[in-house]
Amino acid sequence: ASIRPLVSEATFSVIWRGRTCFLGNTLLFRMFARLARSTNQYVAQLGVFAPIVQPQMFFTAQGILQERNRRFTDDELIDRLKALAVLSGIG
Q1: Which residue of 16, 68, 74, 88 is 20 to 30 Å from 52, comparing CA positions?
Q2: pLDDT tens digits, residue range 9-22?
Q3: CA distance 77 to 73
Q4: Are 15 and 8 in contact (CB under 8 A)?
Q5: Is residue 15 a contact partner of residue 29, using CB atoms and an 8 Å limit?
């Protein structure tokens, strides 16, 4: 048997696996209440739509985006600034 959460709209709480979570009248509670009313309605499935771009191009673009959003350490930033200063003739 599946464990189904019980939603109390009177107290804005959810009882799940024996624990009561008081969420208040928040977006999270409203979303949880909606999902609890319609369990197993949404199913994820891969490959339903034909891809717009080739998978190799998609993963290449994802790699480029990840590299551009990379966080540098302080030491890496200092090293890059020193190299830039040498290239521009400042350092």
Answers
A1: 68
A2: 777 777 767 777 77
A3: 6
A4: yes
A5: no
Cα dihedral value 52, 58, 64, 67, nearest 10: 120
Global pTM value = 0.37
Residue whose token pair is 């040498």: 86
Query: Residue 21: phi, psi to the nearest 5?
Result: -115, 115
Task: Pull the structure tokens for residue 52.
Answer: 């717009």
Q: How far apart are CA 9 and CA 33, in angstroms?
A: 8
Q: Can you tell me the distance from the alpha carbon of 29 to that of 10, in angstroms, rounded to the nearest whole number?
A: 12
Judge contact between 4 and 36, C-beta under 8 A. Answer: yes
* pLDDT confidence tier of residue 40, bands split at 50, 70 and 90: low
